[in-house]
Amino acid sequence: MAGRQSRSRLASLVNDDMMTAQGVKASVFMVVNSNLKDRVPEISSFVVSQAKSVRDSAWQIFFGIVDDSTSARGILRNISRLREEISRVNPRLVHAQYGSVTAAVANWIKGPLPLVVSFCGDDLLGTPIPSLTWRLRERGARFAGLWAARKAAAIIVKSDNLFQALPTSLRDRVTILPNGVDISWFKPMDRDSCRSKLGWSMQSKIVLFNASRNEDQFRKNPLLVRATVDCLTQSVPDVSLRVMSDASSEEVRLMLNAADCLLLTSLHEGSPNIVKEAMACNLPVVSVPCGDVAERLKKTSPGQICPYDPSALAQAIQRVLVTGARSNGRDQIKEQGLTAENVAARLVQLYRHVLRNRTLDRQNPSYPK
User: What percent of the chain has pLDDT over 90?
Assistant: First the structure.
């Protein structure tokens, strides 16, 4: 009961904040999967940032929290509660901010409302853990997400490789739309000041790695990171590896500005937020070719895309460290239209398109769906 009350308080606080915009034109119910921390659900920072930017476009945003997507009892409990919430707030459409069971729950609660489903990465590509139980679980989750997507009025994927991972029958409803970056938050800051706050050495060359958390760490490929840093220490003895895991938004911002280079070695990605956040802070990035990283870094320097080879990655990082320069990533984020505001504007345009087509469906029953 305490967890449910805490969840309700959080949803209430967030939703009250989202409802402060003036001249509201329409509203959307965002269904999000949430981990619990101290019995309080955490909403991904990119979802909160996107919701705030959409709100600034004069839309109301309501969050529906899925706090258990693994047990039948928990899923049924969430469906019952979210149906009550959606009835109370009376939105115009429902947006599932993840595939998998989260999207399936969104479809079960939406009633007659149009549904938008966003696929983010492993909800389509899976997590390559060598476990039969896990493989069966993720196949079931992928099936649930695709089932919901077939009921959706529109589908969003974050990168082209996710688009290619969808069945061809769904691709005519797909928009490729990466998450945007709040460049008012992720911005260049004084390196030494950030290191002082983190307690990091002022002399070391620091390579930053985002290990994520839980089962997702396997996908991040930490073994390649260790091998790369081992190679790097042969030519740069004062290098230090800093691992980011389950960090707050403030800690992420400090670390991106305190480090000398971000290293990405993932087995697969969609459009990794950490790369775009690093770019917004002008932190050089060395990465393997996964997700849309090559597209994001095409005109960004210093930095490099390398094969899954520790020697090649180490050499690329060494070149970054020798230059000692920050990147032009922030300018690239703006040029690519990936600020939170620009992405929110495109999302609102999609919402309006969905609602306009729904109106046409009602006026003309023979209108193609």
Answer: 73
Name residues whose C-beta falls within 8 Å of residue 217's C-beta, 6 or more positions apart in sequence: 211, 245
Question: Within 10 A of 172 (CB to CB), how many other CB atoms are there?
Answer: 7
CB of 22 closer than 8 Å to CB of 58:
yes
**Token reading at 170:** 């769904």
- What residue type is 120 in one-letter code? C
CA 100 to mean position of chain CA atoms: 15
Residue 320 dihedral angles phi and psi, to the nearest 5° = -65, -45
- Where are the strands (E) in 126-271, listed by range? 154-157, 174-176, 205-210, 239-244, 261-264
For the stretch 239-281, pLDDT in tens is 999 999 888 899 999 999 999 999 999 998 999 999 999 999 9
3-7, 341-345, 358-362: least confident range = 3-7
CB-based contact 279:285 (threshold 8 Å): yes
Torsion of CA 103, 109, 115, 119, to 10 degrees: -10
Which domains are delineated in the chain?
A: 2-180+340-363 (3.40.50.2000), 191-334 (3.40.50.2000)
Q: What is the pLDDT of residue 79?
A: 96
User: Within a 10 A sphere around the Cβ of 128, how many other Cβ atoms?
Assistant: 14
Residue 302 has pLDDT above 90, yes or no: yes
Q: 3-state DSSP helix/strand/coil percent for the chain, to nearest 5?
A: 50, 15, 35
Let me know how long the chain is.
369
Report yes or no: 42 and 68 within 8 Å, Cβ to Cβ: no
Q: What is the mean pLDDT of the chain?
A: 88
pLDDT at 19 over 60: no
With CA atoms as reference, report the closest residue to 110 among 28, 201, 187. Answer: 28
CA 209 to CA 218: how far, in whole Å? 13
Residue 218: pLDDT over 80: no
The reported pLDDT for the residue numbered 49 is: 87
